[in-house]
Amino acid sequence: MAATGFLTGYIVPFILVLSLLVFVHEMGHYLVGRWCGIRSTAFSIGFGPELIGFTDKRGTRWKISAIPLGGYVKFFGDEDAASKPDSSGLSHMSLEERAQTLSGAKLWKRAATVAAGPIANFILAILIFAVLFGIYGRMIADPVVSEVRENSAAAAAGVKPGDRLVAIDGEKVMTFEDVRRYVGIRPGTPITVTVERAGEELKLPMVPTRTETTDQFGNKLEMGIIGIVTDQTSGNFRHIEYSPTEALAEGVRETGHVITGTFNYIGNLVTGRMNADQLGGPVRVAQASGQMATLGISAVIQLAAVLSVSIGLLNLMPVPVLDGGHLVFYAIEAIRGRPLGAGAQEVAFRIGMMMILGLMVFATWNDISSLIG
Q1: What is the pTM of this model?
Q2: Which of 26, 150, 171, 222 is catalytic?
Q3: 73 within 8 A of 26, measured Cβ to Cβ
Q4: By CB count within 10 A, which of 141, 269, 304, 305 is most buried?
């Protein structure tokens, strides 16, 4: 029974969510590639041995493979799923055939085809957030302080109950959630909070404190806090609804927040303001999928939006074998007027593969450590 519960509660939601995101990502590559006249020979959800599939009239093999941890579109003339050119095969092709390969297409077509995958993930996230905002709206509170915690950054800076936060580092804040979001990803980073008090604006410098919190599922999270609280009276808690246009605009903003938060998290890792044990791999994502499933379908869909942004950003990393690595190659080609040599690309692909494997091992180790701990 325990094994069945783990399968249905964690693994199945994880596979469903990841498969959707991978499908959208690869469909972006496929559709733009097809629009650019580039042939595809395979479209796979998952890696490894094929479980089920069919070949369409264009010669593309659509399949579901055994290892559900990604996917790929293999274009005509590619040596492998990472779109590494098949130098030997290309040398025996006619000019007409080469024009239908990814490596033989014009530079802008290659760049558009490669960039389409991450862009599709960002578009999906925007649409998901927009639908959620359109259906459920949002509960908001004004950024007005009802209490200042003792010995906190806000107390040391001189924030007082009744103060209204109007900006942080010159960026306007409209809700208490705006404050929490901005501060949460900047532990140990000096910020300037502008408050309105008795009709006067005061600029108060402070440094958010890094703190470890626990969510409702017992997961440990690191974030920055300044030590302020609001309540129903001060914050005027209320539910707001959005028109379709407003919901779409909120979807764009929410996706931007996720992107900003991701970059700030990476910066915090590099500077040591946050611990790298927050970085998770497939096990932690599966765990999160199962936990969100207990909260209902809307929570799972929201997680899918966040993960879609993460997949888009991950693939844009300037690492060979990832989309970002290919785009770097194309940028170099645009500057030099010719592509990198086959030998240089081979070395780059090998280094990129080692980097990806190293990241996967590190993330998986964090997953195991979190489960044991």
Answers
A1: 0.84
A2: 26
A3: yes
A4: 305
